[in-house]
Amino acid sequence: MARRAAHCPIIDDFKAACEKYHYSPAQILPHDSYLINLGHPVSEALEKSRDAFIDEMQRCEQLGLSLLNFHPGSHLQQIPEEECLARIAESINIALEKTQGVTAVIENTAGQGSNLGFRFEHLAAIIDGVEDKSRVGVCIDTCHAFAAGYDLRTTDECEKNIRRF
Fold first, then answer.
1. Domain Xylose isomerase-like TIM barrel: where (predicted)?
2. Which helix (H) or strand (E) holds 136?
3. Full set of structural domains in the chain with CATH
4. Of 97, 111, 163, 102, whose CA–CA distance to 137 is shortest?
């Protein structure tokens, strides 16, 4: 995909608003498109998702943002979980090679359908496959974690699950 021009009035306005209201890049966590599937089992669709993800990462670069939050992906019941997790890690590696200064932040999912990322083990497998560990992070969505079966009703249970993570 073509890289957008670095100088654009709307980008300048965004950066000025961040400065005016004292928002640093670390305080802003945009979410990529929900249509992106970095583990897509079909090669053509996987390439489209990878291109769209790189575009999102480049958009963050242009806005001066350092983080991009995303859901890992789905096997669509067409490939094994392990293969899908490996595709997700490979997709992240490709995006990190083509961008600078933006951390890919993997958000856990609730476990609906064939989406992966609802188990902490999924997140660990993806991170294990990412080459530049300094540019990958995790966002724990507590509603998703609870829906996926992690008991978060008490401080003790939260601490137990965080230690498990």
1. 11-159
2. strand 136-139
3. 28-164 (3.20.20.150)
4. 102
8-15 contacts: CB < 8 A, separation 24 or more? 8/62, 11/62, 11/63, 14/63, 15/63, 15/64
Q: Is the pTM of this model over 0.70?
A: yes
State which H helix or E strand residue 155 sits in: helix 155-164
Helix (H, G, I), strand (E, B) or coil at 69: strand
Which of 162, 123, 139, 143 minimizes the C-alpha distance to 67? 139
Closest CA to 37 of 117, 142, 123, 103: 117
The Cα–Cα gap between 129 and 66 comes to 21
Whole-number pLDDT of residue 164: 83
Question: How many other C-beta atoms lie within 10 A of the C-beta of residue 115?
Answer: 20
Characterize the bridge pairing of strands 136-139 and 103-107: parallel
Q: What tens digit of pLDDT does each residue of 112-132 get?
A: 999 999 999 999 999 999 999
